[in-house]
Amino acid sequence: MAKGTIMLVDDEEYVINSLRRSLRREGYRIIGYVDAKQALEDLKEENVDVIISDQRMPGMSGMDFLIEVRKRHPDIIRILLTGHADMEVAISAINEGKLYRFLTKPWNDEELKVTILNALRLRNLAVENKRLLGKVKGQQDYIQSLEARYPGISEVKRDKNGTIILED
Amino acid sequence: MDDQQRILILDDEECIIQALGKMLRNQGYAVIACLHPQEALKRLEDSAIDLVISDLRMPEMTGIEFLIQVKDICPGAAAILLIDQEDRELAVAAINQGTVDWYVEKPWDEEIMRITVASTLRYRRILLENKKLQQVIEKQGRYISALVVTS
Q1: Angle separating helix axes A109-149 and B88-96, nearest 10 degrees
Q2: Where in the sequence is the domain holding B100, given as residue range(s)?
Q3: pTM of the predicted model, to two decimals?
Q4: A16 vs A21: CA distance, rounded Å
Q5: CATH number for the domain that contains residue B141
Q6: What is the pLDDT of residues A63-74, one digit of tens each?
Q7: Stretch A25-54: mean pLDDT, rounded?
Q8: Does the beta-carbon distance from A136 to B137 stay under 8 Å?
């Protein structure tokens, strides 16, 4: 099984191919798009973990594309590929929580790999925490339903504020 | 301030720990700066540290050797390695092994350092949250079992 799905978006096909080459030994499933709008469309169906998008593209900038991704799929980790001239844009987007990181062109392979690795670690952990939070809530609902069915069942196990006392 | 995050930095060059220490303190972190690995390990035993930033090339031991020991003493601390450009591959291997979270190249760009520190600490917070959720689930699970037996 692939370690994760990475979506690459750049209007220049050779950049996508070059990124693919850099990542070919990493075991990821990689999908490439030269058109951001098409990428956005396909995200309705595709299960993507991390997106790396170029900033300067005709039609839609990488930043606009990633902001749209954030609206529609907030859990996907977003990385911007920029020239040095656009670093300021990327930095303020990171400060505002719109981006995870940026990579500058030309990227170095180690930085690319580490950034993706950490992006996937973060994504997996965030997904896992969401699942665990759901489980915590499920358990709490179940406790409440038991209490409703058997009033007084847990009376002695609550403190004066009504908080359930859990014994170790 | 109770919620101030604590960073330990280790480098055998005084000018580096001074510059980095000043930068991180200006960003609101509490900083402990050390010139020697043994001194740093001692400080890690004595105080709760959220993040360790270590140089790679030092005369007494490498930053990777140091950070392996850090994981034993203080398994919850995040780690960033300071490297020269030619040591990228070593840093990536240490990241793959889980000894290190990120690397930053010297001379560092202040924004890159700031972003890297922030995202490393953010990951650590989510990791701690994960452990906490697992504990809650375990406790609630035991409580439910007790309730079901009672009912």
Answers
A1: 20
A2: 6-150
A3: 0.90
A4: 9
A5: 3.40.50.2300
A6: 999 999 999 999
A7: 97
A8: yes
